[in-house]
Amino acid sequence: MRQLTVQGMRGFRDRQTVSFGQVLTLVLGANGTGKTSLVEALEWLLYGRTARRERGEGLSKQEYKGSYANVHWDWHERPFVEAVVDAADGTEHTVRRELSKDESSDLYVDGEPRPDLSVLGVLSEFAKPLVMQHALQDFIHSQPKQRYRALSSMLGLEGLIRFRDDVDKLQGTAGYATSKPNRATEARAFLAHLLAEARTYAAAGRLVESLQQRPLSAQDASRVLRGLVVAAIGADLPDEAVPEALRDAQAARAREVVDWDAYRPHALTDPVLQMACPDSRSEADLAHQLVEYLQGAGDEVGRVLAEFYRMGLQLREGPDSDRCPFCHARTLTAERTAEIEAAADAATGGGQAQEAAATRLGELRKRLSAADPDSWPAVECPSDEAWERLTALLPPEAPLPQFRSAATALQRQRDECQKAYGQVTAALTHVEQRVAGLAPAEDVSNELPTRIEALASAVRAYVAALDTYRSAFNGLSPGVSETLSSQGEVRYLGFLLEAWERWSDVEIAAQDIALEESLGRFRAEVREFIEEKQKEMLATRGSEIKGWYDLLNPDELVAFSRIQPATDALQILAASYGEEMQAAPNLSASHLNCLGLAVHLGCAVGGHTPFRFVLIDDPVQSMDDHHAQRFIQGVLGKLLGDGHQVIVMTHLERVHDHIDARYRRAHNVYRLRFEAHHPEGPTITEAGPRLVELLQQAQKCSEATNESYRHEAVLSLRQFVERFVKDLFQVTTGQLIPRAYESESWPRLRRLLLRCPGFDVADEGPLEHAHEFTSSHLHEDDAAAARVPGPHEIRPHVESMQKLIAKYADQLGLDADEVQ
Amino acid sequence: MGIVSGLLTEFRDLVSDPFHKGLVEAYLESPGYEALLNECKRTMEARIDEIETTHRTGNAGLPGQADG
Question: Are A236 and B66 an interchain contact pair (Cβ–Cβ within 8 Å)?
């Protein structure tokens, strides 16, 4: 990371470019001067979002909306963050991200649009090279499940965990089971129905077993079904013949219980309907005409005379056809013969009238024969036994009494029709005999019209009874069918038929079950795979985390011990004198802080990350002196020793100075000061070693005529004395200045001086004099404080301090150039 | 998805079930729950088609040889 330019983002309104040292950059700035804004700008540049924003959005999206851009930004152009970085191969690249108003962003690498930084080897967020104080304990003080996700994310397993969660969802209640194709859902419902039905038949026990098998084999189950079908129909028929055979068998079994179809009402033929029609008079008319004919045939003289004529004409036939057969006179001329024939025809009951009567008789018989009740389709009236069966089968509320009454009435009416028809037939026979010239005994021929009308009336009554019967039959029919189909064997055959005809549903259901079971196995495989990966990664990363932790807490008897993964949780364990315990509730805040730092460092650096730099924001602010010292010596020492570029931000001068003093001899320390923050952004300046800066400031201001400048010179001189003692102490002892020495009275400073190896006690005098001089002009309760010393009073102290710094420059890790 | 896709590819190579491989493929192509769900649906629809085609053509699918 060479330099970072920020404009319009977070605390930066105006464009500012911040450069970083190649090895160690120390950033010193009070709270609220924009340090964290710079870190967040870098985080946003790398990933397009920040952890702080994401955490905030979890609480209130509305509150955090629009918080990437600087609050004073006027949007005349897009806010951006741009970094100049060196890649692993030594090539220089420019990475730039621009913010849009909708808070989306566009990333560019060397001016080319890119979706992410994979081109530079940044493949995921887990190796985030940013260690921020405010996030250190987030990991520890979170639910084991969240902790699991956080560490999984840091281990690079976040996406895989998402994958696992997605697979879990597939098998969940709102997963595949509820959004599968409709056909599969129907098939599963059918299988459930079939299984429930099968359980009601003792004979289908093996089918139940087969359908309950997991995995379900439709092939095995089908063999069982076929066995049941063969047993039920008594034959092993070809597949295509099975449904019909099952239907036939079912119908036959139903008939054995009650042959309901036998009671189905028939349709009457047209002649019957014609007769039943009150407007149809044709049969009655014919009967009347016949009766009139017979009444005319009672004139016996005319009939005998006509017979005599016909016999005479028959007798004359021969060679002498004009000769009278009685007197043999040739009187039968053609004219006379015609006259006799006309007379014979004219005689009552003779020739043509008889033929007409015979024709009418034939017509009437034909019509009446079609209306013979015996020729009507039979409607069977249930026998007493059948009534008993029906009564037993049907529920009490079924309209069986109505049907029985209608059936009885129909039967009675049919008997009436048969009786009337018999009467008509008898009359008709007499008419027939009389037309033939015979004289039947007890002649009832004259009653023919009346009897025909009686027959018509009976047929009409029969048709009405048939309608009533049909209604009763239809009303009862569904209940009877349902009852019959639910009867033992009939129902069983229906079950076999349904199973056979919808077997494809069973096969689809079997496939669906197989798919769901497969999802279960898949879920287990994914989980197992992730757990193995976690163990594998924790085996290396866990030891790295422990390594960082141990640098901060060497040989402690109460300390973090290990991270133990489980399916959905991550246990952070600690040990107290050999006794294992949960870390979060039992370790001290300082230990937890160290652990948080170790976790972040374990994930931020190492072979798995593409970054060779790490930015650490206020790392020791809640650590005690011992831990802060171990951080500076152990952690920073290791990071720098491993060749990492390190950027440390702090608001603590003593921490800053200690790090500076400790490492400036070995490394080129680059110093940045974040000073006052303004609407346009922070004031950032590059700084030299604080010790040198203070002395330069004292020298520069000491010669000023303005009293306030000279007052500044005295203040700087005093700060130099204090800084000199502390730096020398830290550099020569490697220890952080204990908090007790924050109060800079000379006796305390002197005690530090006397503990510095290599300090020449002869130099104690100038330091003490300078301290005393500045005290006398700075302390407000001193009378001299009111007076600002003149240049000639300050100058000797500055000069003696210049000699001192030159003498100890090497020990203090200062370059000769810097001291000059 | 860099490392994750690497791990998923590794997982895909480990599993022996073609359906499971299909799910990982679908996830790699279009990461997310929808991709998995669609793959499950697609698989089931293909199996339904196959079964119904077989039954329509009458080649198979009817109960086989009766047991004992």
Answer: yes
Q: Look at A654 and A133; give whichever has higher pLDDT.
A: A654
With an 8 Å Cβ cutoff, is B67 touching chain A?
Answer: yes
Which residues 23-52 of chain B have a CB within 8 Å of chain A?
A: 23, 27, 31-33, 36-37, 40-41, 43-45, 47-48, 51-52
Query: Which is more confidently placed, A503 or B54?
Result: A503
Q: Mean per-residue pLDDT for A486-503?
A: 88
- Cβ contacts of A64-72, under 8 Å, gap ≥ 24: A65/A103, A66/A103, A68/A9, A68/A10, A68/A44, A68/A99, A68/A103, A69/A8, A69/A9, A69/A99, A70/A8, A70/A9, A70/A10, A70/A11, A70/A12, A70/A13, A70/A681, A72/A13, A72/A679, A72/A680
Query: Which residue from B minimizes the CA distance to A229?
Result: B66
**Of B19, B45, B61, which has the smallest distance from its Cβ to A503's Cβ?**
B61
Mean of pLDDT over chain A: 85
Residue-range domain boundaries for chain B: 2-56
Decide if pLDDT at A25 tops 90.
Answer: yes
Chain B: nearest CA to A567, how far in angstroms?
A: 17
Q: How far is CA A38 from the centre of its chain?
A: 41
CA distances from A29 to A34, A246, B2 (A): 8, 93, 37
Q: Does A507 contact B66 at a Cβ distance shorter than 8 Å? A: no
A535 near A553, Cβ under 8 Å? no
pTM of the predicted model as reported, rounded to 2 decimal places: 0.56
ipTM score assigned to the predicted complex: 0.91
Task: Give which of A77, A2, A74, A79 is closest to A40, Cα–Cα.
Answer: A79
Q: How far is A610 from chain B (nearest CA, A)?
A: 12
CA distance A523 to chain B (A): 10
> Using one digit for the tens of pLDDT, what is the confidence trace for A178-232?
889 999 999 999 999 999 999 999 899 999 999 999 889 999 999 999 999 999 9
A219 contacts in chain B (CB < 8 Å): 64
Residue B68 has a pLDDT of: 44
Domain ranges of chain A: 1-123+610-687, 182-261+489-517, 270-297+353-487, 300-347, 690-819
Specify the CATH class of A1-123+610-687 in words. Answer: alpha beta
Distance set, CA A472 to CA A268, A415, A581 (Å): 17, 20, 85
Residue B63 is nearest to which of A156, A183, A222, comparing CB atoms? A222
A580-603, pLDDT tens digit by residue? 888 878 888 778 888 888 888 887
Cβ-contact A625, A2 below 8 angstroms: no
Per-residue pLDDT tens digits for A78-132: 999 999 999 878 899 999 999 999 999 999 999 999 988 888 887 666 668 888 8
User: Hey, are the CB atoms on B47 and A511 less than 8 Å from each other?
Assistant: yes
Cβ-defined contact of B41 to A176 (cutoff 8 Å): yes
